[in-house]
Amino acid sequence: MSSLRRHPLAPPFAAPPVTSPLRAAIPRTAMKPPMRARLVPARFLPGPGPGPGRARAAWSAREKRALLAALRAQAALGLPEPLSRPLRERLPRRSEAEIAALVQRLRGRAAREAVRTRYRQCLEQLRRRRAQLPAPIEVWLELAEALAEGLEEVTAAAFSQVLTVAATEPLTLLHSVPPHPPSPVALTEQGGAAPGAPPDPPAQPLLPGDFTIDFQRVYEYLARLCRGGKGPPLPPAESAVLLALLGSLPPELGALDCAALHSHLRGSYSTLTAPCPPGTVPPGPPTTPGPPLAGWRGVGLCPLNLFLVPLRLLARADASG
């Protein structure tokens, strides 16, 4: 019995494993996972080179810097496509196929990065636009562009015609310095002097140091601008008149009946921006039987007065009121 005594440092007796009949019936090979095909990375695949079956080594940082320097040197020459021979000379351990493949990957990466950068810039611009409240003049400009869609040429032509007529008005010629009296034929056509009336006295000769202002040139210059053309520059006197006209716009706007004009514009804005109920046709101008009207008359809009402002609101307000 003393021989069966266990030594204090000996491991304890292990119990025999308990094996179920179902587990014993299943073979050990059926419990292993199926074999998976191992794919070799592309950089280790055999490629063209000096030796058969040579594995492609990964591009080192030194090789990439050399390739980038060679591409920059060719880009400085203005070449549309990189030449493979100079690149091969810079990278003697690489084949032309390997260099072309890397250049193609770099192109794709640069194109993706450019698209991402442009997309981020567009999103940032859109965020800034939405964050900034538009000024009232910007709101009215957008509304005018929506109303005058397709009528820009008509508007420009109409303004040009108005300014061309203003250049030949008798008052325009008489307010020039020195005044240019119109011909009797022009006065008769415009309802001026009757036939047989005595002609106006001839213009006085200019003294040394006097300046001349021809308002006809000013109106003709503005008419050319409305048509999108460019003419000869105005002389100094006419240029000063044009600057004075532009500088007088703010006080002239302040001299209008601002309360009535404000009320009319608010009503026009509410009418033009009101949503149309579903299933209804937007109200249009009254139509008469006959052929359809062409141009801006067919839509009931005047290009020179898109917001239908009454002419009485464009006159100076009464000082007493």
Give me the secondary-structure topology:
Layout: H1 21-25, H2 61-76, H3 84-90, H4 96-131, H5 136-147, H6 152-167, H7 170-174, H8 184-189, H9 215-226, H10 236-247, H11 249-254, H12 258-273
Helix pairs in contact: 6-9
What does this structure look like?
- By secondary structure, this protein is mostly helical.
- The chain has helices at 21-25, 61-76, 84-90, 96-131, 136-147, 152-167, 170-174, 184-189, 215-226, 236-247, 249-254, 258-273.
- It is built from twelve helices and no strands.
- Helix 6 (152-167) packs antiparallel against helix 9.
- It is elongated, with a radius of gyration of 44 Å.
- 4% of the residues are buried.
- The model is unreliable at 49-55, 185-201 and 284-295 (pLDDT under 50).
Relevant terms:
321 residues; mainly alpha; 12 helices; 46% helix; elongated
Poorly predicted ranges? 49-55, 185-201, 284-295
Average of the residue pLDDT scores: 74
Largest sheet: none
Quaternary organisation of the protein chains: single chain
In one word, what is the shape? elongated
H/E topology pattern: HHHHHHHHHHHH
- Count the helices. How many? 12
- Cα radius of gyration in angstroms: 44 Å
Secondary-structure-derived class: mainly alpha
In terms of DSSP E residues, the strand content is under 5%
* Counted beta strands: 0
- Could you tell me how far the N terminus lies from the C terminus, measured between alpha carbons in angstroms? 135 Å
The percent of residues in helical segments reads 40-55%
